[in-house]
Prior knowledge:
CATH topology of the largest domain: Aminopeptidase
Distance between the termini: 16 Å
Bound molecules: zinc ion
Number of helices: 9
Radius of gyration: 24 Å
Oligomer: single chain
Amino acid sequence: MININKERVLNEFIEVVKVNSYTRQEREMADLLLGKLKDMGLDPYEDRAHDEFGGNAGNIVVKLEGRKDKTPLLFCAHMDRVAPGENISPVIKEEKIYSDGTTVLGSDDAAGIVAILEALKCIQERNIEHGDLDFVFTAGEEEGLLGSKNLDFKKLKASYCYVLDAGGPVGTIVNQAPGQYEILITVKGLAAHAGSDVEKGINAIMVVSDAVSSLKWGRIDKSTTSNLGVIQGGRATNIVCDLVELKGEVRSLDMNKLDLHSRRIGEHFKSITRKWGAQLDFQKIHLYSPFQLEENEQIIRLAQKAALETGVEPLAKSSGGGSDANVFNARGIPAVNLGIGTEKAHTREEYIGIPDLLHLAELVLNIIKLS
Length: 371
Ligand SMILES: [Zn+2]
């Protein structure tokens, strides 16, 4: 049982959420963190990841040398937040923190940031034994894991990575998450007058409707889903429609199935458009790869033990979405995503319990102590 300084955590949380920090606009947050880390006597650095994605701040990394007989660990939280997330005015009601209803709260991912900062302070104040530790505050997470994808992994030596960014109560350990392809489809038909020349046209709406309706969508198998989310096309009722654009996605816990099903969609559209004499442009864009870690692996056992020590229920589970943990796993550092206690993330109703904030900081410390 570690007594976390409630007053300090709460004040820091409020300070962090009040700082504006959108994707690609994390400068203010990055400067705040650099200042706080330097004030602790640490030596943080900022990388140039944002050169790759057009932001105004890179990832912030700080390293702590420690005992070599302990497992080297990495903790990660992201600096950016979704809109509307500017000029946040937090409101405390019955041990919970909300926004004033006009913005998100930004506990996604201020909770993760604050837990790391508090853990660092406790390590210093109480001389807590630790191994080599890396802490990474990523930029650009919310729009495609941009910061982590452009991290310099050569500088990171951790055996395991704990990302502090999952939904669900503190104690949640996301040990599997799907990979995702974005699918962009353009079908080009042939325009013609819808009355006099209708036979000369090739209606892209008909082609797309044929292709879409003759393929399975939604739940493909236990680990794979597909979805079409956007359809656009057509100009007027008196013109045979010559262009339809579709946007969709495929997710799977299994990289082979992800590849296979995305390819299947492409081949299916190819054969249908050929049948109609239309033209196809099909693109699949790799957003991130899936990961699956077994529950008996050391990275999870360590988190489970630390959760029990913290007094929260450890629960390993699968997630439907991607996070920086997908990138760390793909780059060879086994990573799980830990629940931060945030509820209704990405909405104006987002809130977090003050006990969750304290538990999260304590969980990070316990993982470090038990490593
Ligand atoms: Zn997040």
